[in-house]
Automatic annotation (TrEMBL):
Residues 10-176 form the Alcohol dehydrogenase iron-type/glycerol dehydrogenase GldA domain. Residues 188-380 form the Fe-containing alcohol dehydrogenase-like C-terminal domain. It comes from Desulforhopalus singaporensis. Keywords: Oxidoreductase. Coiled coil: none annotated. The lineage of its organism: Bacteria, Pseudomonadati, Thermodesulfobacteriota, Desulfobulbia, Desulfobulbales. It holds the Pfam family ADH_Fe_C. One of its GO terms (molecular function) is alcohol dehydrogenase (NAD+) activity. This is Alcohol dehydrogenase. Belongs to the iron-containing alcohol dehydrogenase family.
Length: 382
């Protein structure tokens, strides 16, 4: 086996774990915390709750509310300026992938300078980042666990993947109680993102035994618990989705992803689409594309999805893909690209695929892909 590494943050998991945020900040030496969140989380009352928790520990804070979905390069750069001016020493972010990625982008610029696009790709951040505590409010993006940060380059209209071990936060707090304020749509979008992370990381060319076990665990939990979580929003099933998301995140953070995410980043960057909308459309198409290069592994995934063994990797893989298509059909989601993109914008797929081929996620796909092949996948799911 090749030499491998496995980096994860300290993870504080469980109902009510958010109450530990103040002590976490103190352990990291916080005197003045830089708080990052967005209007939705504020509205749900979680930002005030976090401020109260910090105040109880005697920690001062400054709040940066400038987060939108699909965070932009200039927002991160403005945030870094705000961080520097206010003399903060620890970053705490609470939110979904957008808030957490904004915080990570701010951390990069605040400590390394320059523009966020200078750090696009793998291992381009050289100086240490401020200590970070990330509190996720979704069960999917994995930004609270991962060494990934996704920021939109407005000029090029593309989501940049910034990947470096220093982006792994010091502490991740995963409190399933927070998920109770989420809509069914967001629960689905987050879970299918985690599912895509689990599947792509499992077949990744740099998967290891330390990531593979987490990938398979996540797939199993999402298939079993998502329908129940959507129907009932019961805390027990939401907690299982949180466990699935942590597992998928530990896997993809260390094994990276594949062409499904490469295309998703470029599509999302161009059309400002919610990330979670794209996976039910693309994922099974990409699995079919990969089948000749990852038959055994897609067979393992199929066995978990159908919960039985049909006797050959090929049969398990195909049955798993079919079952997954039925699974997505049973959710209230778009299943074709044309459901999200109008016919008159279809011609943008070509430049989108030309950008996607350069996404860092493309490097670890089991079957190499040219932009023409990515376009073919998009046309097949149109
Ligand atoms: Fe994702």
């Amino acid at each position: 086996m090749d030499i491998t590494k496995f980096a994860i943050p300290e993870i504080i998991f469980g109902r009510g774990s958010m109450n530990h945020a103040g002590q976490c900040a103190l352990r990291l030496g916080a005197k003045k915390v830089f708080l990052v969140s967005d209007a939705g989380i504020e509205h749900a009352g979680w930002v005030q709750r976090l401020m109260d928790i910090l105040e109880k520990e005697g920690i001062r804070w400054i709040y940066y509310p400038g987060v939108t979905s699909n965070p932009r390069d200039f927002q991160v750069e403005q945030g870094a300026e705000f961080y520097r001016k206010n003399g903060a020493d620890v970053i705490i972010a609470i939110g979904g992938g957008s808030a957490l990625d904004t915080a990570k982008g701010i951390a990069i610029i605040a400590s390394n300078g320059g523009k966020i696009r200078d750090y696009e790709g793998a291992n381009r951040v050289h100086r240490p980042l401020p200590p970070m505590v990330l509190i996720t409010t979704t069960a999917g993006s994995g930004s609270d666990i991962s060494q990934f940060c996704i920021i939109t380059d407005v000029e090029r209209g593309v989501k940049m993947s910034i990947i470096t071990r220093t982006l792994v936060p010091n502490i991740s707090i995963v409190d399933p109680l927070i998920l109770r304020t989420k809509s069914k749509t967001l629960i689905i979008q987050s879970a299918v993102d985690a599912l895509a992370h689990a599947i792509e990381s499992y077949v990744s060319t740099i998967a290891s035994p330390f990531t593979e076990m987490h990938s398979l665990k996540a797939i199993d939990l999402i298939i079993r618990y998502l329908p129940h979580a959507v129907a009932t929003q019961s805390l027990d099933s939401l907690e299982q989705l949180s466990i699935a998301s942590v597992s998928a995140s530990m896997a993809f953070s260390n094994a990276s992803l594949g062409v499904e995410h490469a295309i998703a980043h470029s599509l999302g960057g161009h059309f400002d689409m919610a990330h979670g909308v794209i996976h039910p459309i693309l994922l099974t198409g990409v699995m079919r594309y990969n089948i000749d290069s990852a038959r055994e592994k897609l067979g393992d995934i199929g066995r978990v999805i159908i919960n039985k063994d049909l006797g050959s990797a090929e049969k398990n893989a195909l049955a798993g893909i079919e079952k997954l298509e039925q699974f997505f059909s049973s959710l209230d989601v778009s299943l074709r690209l044309r459901d999200e993109i109008s016919e008159d914008k279809k011609h943008f797929l070509k430049p989108i695929c030309k950008l996607a081929v350069n996404d860092a996620c493309n490097l670890t796909n089991p079957r190499p892909a040219s932009w023409q092949e990515l376009l073919k996948i998009c046309e097949e799911v149109w």
